[in-house]
Request: fold
Amino acid sequence: MSTPSQADFAGQHITVAGLGVSGISAARALAGLGARVTVVDGGDGDKQRAAARELAAEEITVRLGDGATLPEGTDLVVTSPGWKPDSPLFAAAAAAGVDVVGDVEIAWRLRGPDAAAWLGVTGTNGKTTTVRMLASILAAEGLHTAAVGNIGTPIIDVVLGQGQDGAQPYDVLAVELSSYQLHWAPSLRAHSAVVLNLAPDHLDWHGSMQAYAADKGRIYEGNTVACVYNAADKATEDLVREADVEEGCRAIGFTLGTPGPSQLGVVEGILVDRAFVENRQQQAQELAEVSDIAPGSGTPAPHNIANALAAAALARAFGVRPAAVRDGLRAFHPDAHRIQHVAERDGVTYIDDSKATNTHAAEASLAAYEHIVWIAGGLAKGATFDELVQKSAARLRGAVLIGADRALIREALARHAPDVPVVDLDRTDTGAMSEAVREAARLAEPGDTVLLAPACASMDMFVNYNKRGEAFADAVGELTARDH
Reply:
């Protein structure tokens, strides 16, 4: 039986902006609820036309290219995350008095009366890892859960699928939320949520760092149990202070050091909780050992210890037992291309962190190793590299630069690390990675780490960061093969 919120969409004329994964998901879901759906997309290529044909077979209208304007009679616009707030379509909607929301907002409105709680995760970096750690911990507690949202599983599909066809309803959802999604989700009210960190990113979309931070901070609005923040990143705590939360909701910090009351932290290699204990002034609860974080992959990088603490805080806010935190972290396996150990050769370790596509992520990656030959470069997306190089200079044994915007990194190295040897590869073909790895191996000494942490996007040379990481691993394999 439909809930009233689902029934409200029947008969409405809804325009969906974008033919991506979330747009197609929203279009199908809303059409299934009886809405009259039109999808608009500025593209008009083979991919868009193929998607349009599929949707047309389901009686969903699609307008491509120049037809991506506001259809007359639209009652609501549902946007995909990538559409900028200043898009002409949204200006037309505002002029017509039509609301614009995102797929997360629709999913929130569609929840039934017994809906699963949402535990929200956002931040500039670490979202996917934290959400997957959280889902692993919740599952270890025996809860029926899923990692959803920006992680790739459209949340509308999960919400509408709960309990249907005999499926077991979810107890709780681990929800990854981007700043784009939060911008368009005014009604969202999570059980508990975390902002992992804040650094400049997507400023071309948001317009300013202040606007970007404000959209991240929306995840705390209306939280009922805990607002989790990073004690090492004051901006995240400031967002908690500014949030309008439910009475009794608590601010919970996480730190890589010894935790104070109402914090989680680390003491002598043990993750401990001084927030969700009976006497937090005098007691601490052991949760897990640092070595339990992705066991078998070596000592975890500091930022992954922070991610584990954030995931543990959200799980504990939901009432999860300490043993489940330990078991969930032990069961978690990181995605590929995130601080991934590739090989060791002649005493040199090769690490793939191709997912480090911005300076903040690269800084965390570089901080994890003592002596580094750094492979970096790609599309800078407007970033500057002086602060990153300043903070990391003492760790650098050498640098090998690839990609379209490598000159920006080379100039930062010349200013702040002039003694570090730099190899500048003047090529942007995919074969450049093999040469980069060979040059890095030449610069490295036993005990060093050759680290792919590009601090840039990949699209100048590769389809995506996954392909870049695979090219790195293949090139390392070529090195090893030549020795045999």
The CA atoms of residues 140 and 324 lie 5 Å apart. The chain has a mean pLDDT of 91. The chain has 18 helices and 20 strands. Residues 465-482 form the longest helix (18 residues).
